[in-house]
Amino acid sequence: AQRPLTLLGLGDMGTALARTWLAAGHPLTVWNRTAAKAEALAGEGAAVAATAAEAVAANGLVVVCLLDDASVGAALDGADLSGKDVVNLTTGRPSEGRARAAWAAERGARFVDAGIMATPVMIGNPGAYVLYSGSRALVDAHRPTLEVPAAVRYVGEDPGHAALYDVALLSAMYGMFGGISHAFALIEGEDVAPKELAPLLSEWLGAMGFFVGNAAERLTSRDFTSGVVSNLAMQVAATGTLLRTAEEQGVSTELILPYVELMRRRLAAGGGAHAGEDTAGAITLLKR
Ligand code: NDP
């Protein structure tokens, strides 16, 4: 028999998670602040608790998927967590993950924080995964249950690290979205269909993904110059063309200017000492 669990939160994500556990035969107790969202799941076999405290009392494993950390505090206020295994799938900051872990420990619970790297439609399908950090013993004890909605990627005992990885990935994603947005704005009004540019853009972004490994290698070795094929002086000169083209096309440079300025700052620092680097060295300027 599959092991029972409790799920707090039936928004878009919580509902998708719930359906995978029910479909896999796990006895599931659910609670949601707005009770109407539990009705469909009750029809699919979920037990519906009247309060969060009652839902927590029902099972040893308690999964929480609410809007933000404040809603986790609000929902669990007054619930008896002693002896419970709490898995927090709510998106938050690293500091919130650490504070929530200490909060859970004070209440006698084991705790892991998590970051869901999937949209609700991806849940239960290949490619979806969840980052976990905090109690390794908890993850080991419940791995088969946790793996039902998405693959499990455990990133360490520090309960802040799942959120740290999550935020790092999402921040990189928005940088990429910014570049894609600028590229499409450049062709607007020209006789170039977005669908003509799209395959070239996808292919180019894939090829330029080499920068991830390149940057990791250089940040580890602190060698920013060996084997450079696109030197910083050349790249800064080329970005002048990018900025002027944007002006000629009547497109705002707001999305690409910050990175151009960072490259310029690295080139200007050290009296030309960084001219032969690529752009990985500029990363070292960001940490305040
Ligand atoms: P929704 O907005 O669909 O649902 C939010 C949930 O939080 C609802 O169950 C809502 O209850 C509950 N809630 C909000 N405030 C409170 C409160 N003060 N007390 C109790 N419950 C509260 O969001 P999702 O389900 O999409 O997201 C849930 C979590 O999953 C978030 O942390 C999100 O960042 C994360 N996530 C979502 C992804 C997505 O693509 N959707 C992707 C990756 C992570 P009520 O129904 O009563 O309003």
TrEMBL record:
Keywords: Oxidoreductase
Gene3D superfamilies given in the database record: N-(1-d-carboxylethyl)-l-norvaline Dehydrogenase, domain 2, NAD(P)-binding Rossmann-like Domain
6-phosphogluconate dehydrogenase NADP-binding domain ranges (all copies): 6-152
Database matches in SUPFAM superfamilies: NAD(P)-binding Rossmann-fold domains
InterPro entries: 6PGD_dom2 (IPR013328), 6PGDH_NADP-bd (IPR006115), HIBADH-related (IPR015815), HIBADH-related_NP60_sf (IPR051265), NAD(P)-bd_dom_sf (IPR036291), RedAm-like_C (IPR048666)
Transmembrane segment boundaries: none
Domain NADPH-dependent reductive aminase-like C-terminal: 158-274
Any one GO molecular-function label of the UniProt entry: NADP binding
Source taxon at top rank: Bacteria
Keyword Oxidoreductase in annotation: yes
Pfam families the record matches: NAD_binding_2, RedAm-like_C
Family: Belongs to the HIBADH-related family.
Protein name, per record: NAD(P)-dependent oxidoreductase
Native source species: Streptomyces globosus
Top-level taxonomy: Bacteria, Bacillati, Actinomycetota, Actinomycetes, Kitasatosporales
